[in-house]
Input
Amino acid sequence: MTQQSRCHLPDRLTNKDGDERKVGVEIEISGLGYEELVALTARLLEGEAREKSRYVSIVDTALGDFTVELDSDPIKELDLRDERLPESLRELGGHAMDVIDYAAERIVPLEIVSPPIPLSRLETVETLCDELRRAGALGSRESVYYAFGLQLNPELPDLSAPTLVRYLQAFAVLYDWLKARHQLDFSRKLTTYIEPWDSGYVERIVKTDYTPDIPQLMQDYLKDNPTRNRALDLLPLFAYLDEQLLARYVIDRRIKSRPTLHYRLPDCDIDNPAWHFSTVWNDWVVLEQLAANHDDLRELCNMFRESKLASFHNLTNSWRSRCEEWLEKKGYI
Output
């Protein structure tokens, strides 16, 4: 790959309407003040910033609106005039807010949320992350308190049940490899934000005869994974597909309906010179390519099921290493 095209592209570039697929990106960082980050993001993206509310700004760019915000609703919504607060705190007024702001910017991550970006324009995010690093942005490794993530919201090529099953199967068999590739920081490993899918659910979906329709697919998942806190979160997609069915299992105002997956596994190691957005994205593209290749996906699912059987070979060979060897042999990596 050239310096101008570090972000790989999957084979399936269009959605069901024939338009170029898009992906949303969420970047959590520290090390920069809120106002500094807003101004820097606007300059790097050649956009114009405007304040939407306390600790929430919109940067208008040629790609759409980027949001820069403090990732904490209680602090963003804090009003010192609220009579529920202690009188001593309310009397401090602006001084109290200065102290709160100072502490918040060092403990709570600042977040940049992109609009849906065409796959062919993802190099913009690569450049943005590189420039933020040079400006002093910090990621998960900087402190045990930090558990910052880099989340992807890739639009699906279509919303048919067979396509969704292939993506779920590909993620299930690649999970151990992806987790190792992302070298998750210790602080992030301790969080509940990126839990794996229920093992019984994984066992069910990797079978060759798993051919549910959309309602059955949703019910199977939600019975065992009724939470946003999964490494691959399907709730935004389910809200888009059937909000009433989702509400039988989960009611959470934070769920945003969209025809995308919500990939929460990677951490944001932005201050590491060896870390790049493209590395995370290109690993996701491996999953994309596997999901698009029916024969290879079936072969790897068979190997995955065999790896769960009791045998000396399975005890002495990890699934992650076997999976990586297979990906190399097949030319995926």
Notes: Residues 161-182 form the longest helix (22 residues).
